[in-house]
Amino acid sequence: MAGxxxxxxxxxxxxxxxxxxxxxxxxxxxxxxxxxxxxxRRFGGTAVHGGVNCWEMGIGGTGIPFDVYQRLKRxxxxxxxxxxxxxxxxxxxxxxxxxxLDKVSFPGGEFLIDPDRTYRDTLRRHPGAGQPKTEExxxxxxxxxPFLPDAMxxxxxxxxxxTGKVALRLNTVFTEILSNNGRIERVRLNDGSIVxxxxxxxxxxxxxxxxxxxxxxxxxDPRSLFDEPNAPEAPSDALNAVTLIYKIMPSQKETIxxxxxxxxxxxxxxxxxPPMSCVQYPDMGRNCNMLPTMEGREQVLLGCQAxxxxxxxxxKAHWHFVQTHWPEFRRYRMVWLAPMLGIRESRRVVCERMLxxxxxxxxxxRQTDNDIIAIADHALDRHGESGGCLELDEPYxxxxxxxxxxxxxxxxxxxxAAGFSSIAASSCRLxxxxxxxxxxxxxxxxxARHLDASLPEISPAALRDQLLRxxxxxxxxxPAELTAYINAADDF
Length: 492
Hints:
By secondary structure, the chain is of the alpha+beta class.
């Protein structure tokens, strides 16, 4: 990738997922010299290589996410689409699952490419106060953005390269870190080189912040910590569930693919096979997401490699189960397994502001924070771990202080490890939200660099003004100017 190749940068970003991409691009577009350090051999993170190749419906998809969508649509038009909801067992045969599967018309939720929908149709999830989540409402309002992962990686890397300001180091991790008085001064990489930067963004699961000495939280928080109504009295080591996503493609031959030796046909880790989200790709393949594949705490106990190996066994059994009970899938073949697990929750860094369930359920209309830098409206959804899927009445805002580790001066967190309670994290974790946290972080760093200031010193009003200029939605309903911009670009 074109860009700087040096040992000292304005900004070093640890992690090349959605948050890291957003931070690097925003900072580079404003003239900063940026380094991205990514442990994987490829760029894009969970949203690309974890199989989460779909942006779910929801507020907070303007700004850089919309820029990315436009680039995909214009440069790789057959790699991205908009989906609408098809069949869904919840609305048709939910009471039969899993005891009378012959009466269930589809093994989960089906989401199909809909050429009549546009990007602006994807920018809302919440039904609204007093509005039930009916089938009719969901079919009319719930639309997401599935994309082919290789095209997404190509577009993101091209957008970074066009700035001429970004250096990318793949297959790279840090081995040592020197921090002092609330500042990271430098890190040593696994090739022995030293990196210095004025500012740092942690876009990992909090690895950089934790190594620097930031306090972090893990598991479900007790009620006493944030006074959340749905928090338990005692803390728990439970984590939001883990997914291993697989792709299937149409086939002319009808058959049930045989199970590999040593994999049972019956579900051995739960009472029954879970339903799945089945999203149609633009190439007519299907993204199959068994919900869930593994509990979060089990993944931690097993470790990454053993957990991945066990999840492979489970998805093979799941696919055999789907083909056995729903004949339409016998004309499909499993062609791809995501090379990494989709992890929804890990550690969370203690930040100057910790967003919690009360903030999310109050919503924008009752939030008093003056530093909101992104908005979201995804449900509070822990995938079976201590609570169901609670839809929201209105969007909520994420304050800038949720990105600032407590007591730190030159470090921001722009990932699922930011300043969220465990309940809040179940809503804030989606890819487009992470990309907008990154955009806010990169913009804050640019403001700080130009003022030679620390990150907590940045004016919330100045930061919000810059984000509004970048077409980031910070209010609900969206301002008329932003709506007009999205409509005009969407119809191009």
